[in-house]
Write a structure and sequence with these properties.
Layout lengths: L16 E4 L4 E4 H9 L1 H8 L25 H11 L10 H17 L1 H17 L6 H24 L1
Antiparallel strand pairs: 1-2
Length: 158
């Protein structure tokens, strides 16, 4: 049963993947299941930020930077900056930050999502040959979430 607006059919002919016309990308079975059952995945595909999606732009046009917006992802970039850890081209940090911003503080606290955030941080730390201590990283994410909540409350009060 499809719970979202996903129109894909899970490959059944022995193939492990299929091409999604609506979202313009290759999807594996699990990608299709996630898109069909979870609104966050479906929205990410709809916004052009799903797994294996390439940004849509005219070939002759220079790439446009997409603003991060406000939220825990943006705050995590700030907090990591305090430790001189910066986003580098191709790392996917800003994509994760946008996703965290979409989830919001409460969404980022969900155990499944927190695990995804920490897993991404661990992968990036290994690529950069930086030490990674999961409890410390979780603490940094918590600081970012609280900073985002404070900013959210200030903007609502104004």
């Amino acid at each position: 049963m499809v719970r979202t607006g996903c129109e894909c059919e899970i490959p059944t002919d022995g193939k492990r993947s299929m091409f999604c016309q609506r979202h313009g990308c290759k999807k594996y079975r699990q990608d299709v299941k996630n898109c069909q059952n979870y609104w966050d995945y479906f929205r990410a595909y709809e916004e052009g930020m799903g797994a294996r999606q390439q940004p849509k732009q005219d070939p002759g046009e220079p790439p446009k930077p997409v603003p991060l917006g406000e939220g825990p992802g943006t705050e995590l970039i700030v907090v990591l900056g305090w430790l001189w850890i910066k986003s580098i081209p191709g790392c996917g940090c800003k994509k994760m930050a946008r996703l965290m911003n979409r989830w919001g503080p409460d969404g980022c606290r969900q155990p499944k999502r927190m695990k995804a955030i920490l897993d991404k941080m661990e992968i990036e730390a290994k690529k950069r040959k930086l030490p990674f201590v999961r409890p410390a990283a979780k603490r940094l994410v918590g600081i970012a979430i609280r900073r985002a909540e404070k900013k959210q409350k200030k903007s609502q009060a104004a």
